[in-house]
Amino acid sequence: NQAQSGPQWERHTTELTNCIVAFLSPILPTEEEYRIKEATRRQLERLANRVSPGSKLLAFGSMANGFALRNSDMDLCCLIGKGPDGQPTTHHTASELVEILGQLIREETDFTVMPLPKARIPIIKINRSPTTDLPYEIACDIGFENRLALENTRLLLSYAMVDPTRLRTLVLFLKVWTKRRKLNSPYMGTLSSYGYTLLVLYFLTHVKKPAVLPNLQRLPPTRPMKPDEMELNGNNIYFYDDVATLRKEWSSQNTDNVGELLVDFFRYFSKEFSYARDVISLKSENGLIPKDGKTWNAELCIEDPFQAGYNVSRTVTKDGLYTIRGEFMRASRYLTNMRGQKISVLIAELC
Ligand code: ATP
Ligand code: MG
Questions:
Q1: Which of 27, 75, 146 is the best mutation target for the ligand 1 pocket, counting ligand atoms within 8 Å of the beta carbon and taking the most?
Q2: In three state form, how does the secondary structure of the chain look?
Q3: Among 205-219, 243-257, 269-283, where is mean pLDDT lowest?
Q4: Which of 95, 120, 145 is the last residue in one of the domains?
Q5: Of 43, 81, 173, 321, which is most buried with the most CB atoms under 10 A?
Q6: Which pLDDT score is estimated for 3?
Q7: Mean pLDDT of 112-120
Q8: Per-residue pLDDT, 337
């Protein structure tokens, strides 16, 4: 292993950074894709309003937090409308709404509709193949009243605005890499994009010294908070969201470039992080809490930022984690022992 410091290493990681940025640029969503997706959202919102007047259909996940790649799925959350009396304009359950709105979308649009009323979180899955007029495949999940998802989307967006380039580049690169290496399938025993994003946030907030990001959930508020900004269904959802102030007053002492951070990320999660002992908990003081064998006994434990005790990575099996760690090690080796190779070739091989 060659030394990971000095001018040669610096040149190397600078080139790596530039190559990653160049690699991502053609696979980011275009303006047109955003426009078409927004038009689709509005079309679906009109249908939701026929089921429940005053409903809103809001985007969450990657289309709303700045971590989208080209052709990524659209996550939508329907918030039920309220009448003049303050009461909801429908009293159907989420499962019933999935059936009713699903049926309406099937009748009124050219989407293929698959309602999943019995899922743990009932959703409608819809999709439409690309046509010559609309050369984009649209795949979309619609859920109901999932306000926590809207909040964690806003948290990720706020982090993305504090450090606009490094966090976003790292997350996007990891998304492409985990998808190509088949490490991004919660149904197959690996981790969701959301899970990987939390790993990156933990790494930049708690592992890197000096930190690249502040812990937004632990900065004291600078304005009076309303009760509904602090709590949602018994969950503490507070975080510091005055990003404009933060960008003026908080600047990271950490000057590492994306290449260095990526190499470090892979090394940390292949060798240093103790999967057997620790739970990653972004909002905690130093980012980790000990596994206790009761609430926390899964292979990989990542606590949701807002739902205390909820393991975002509960889908990760023993085999899944073995594969993920193996890939982290492979990536770590590739990126450290690669001097002299053409970096664009290396990135292609890595993915
Ligand atoms: P992609 O572009 O790959 O779709 P994404 O940024 O949309 O990535 P997803 O993993 O699709 O990320 O998650 C979208 C949203 O769904 C997250 O912001 C989160 O609110 C919610 N979510 C996803 N996975 C989980 C999970 N395991 N536990 C809780 N919420 C989750
Ligand atoms: Mg998504």
A1: 75
A2: CCCCCHHHHHHHHHHHHHHHHHHHHHHCCCHHHHHHHHHHHHHHHHHHHHHCCCCEEEEECHHHHCCCCCCCCEEEEEECCECCCCCECCCCCHHHHHHHHHHHHHHHCCCEEEEECCCCCCEEEEEECCCCCCCCCEEEEEEECCHHHHHHHHHHHHHHHHCCCHHHHHHHHHHHHHHHCCCCCHHHCCCCHHHHHHHHHHHHHHHCCCCCCCCCCCCCCCCCCCHHHHEECCEECCCCCCHHHHHHHCCCCCCCCHHHHHHHHHHHHHHHCCCCCEEECCCCCCCEEECCCCCCCCCCCEECCCCCCCECCCCCCHHHHHHHHHHHHHHHHHHHCCCCCCHHHHHHHHC
A3: 243-257
A4: 145
A5: 173
A6: 72
A7: 96
A8: 78
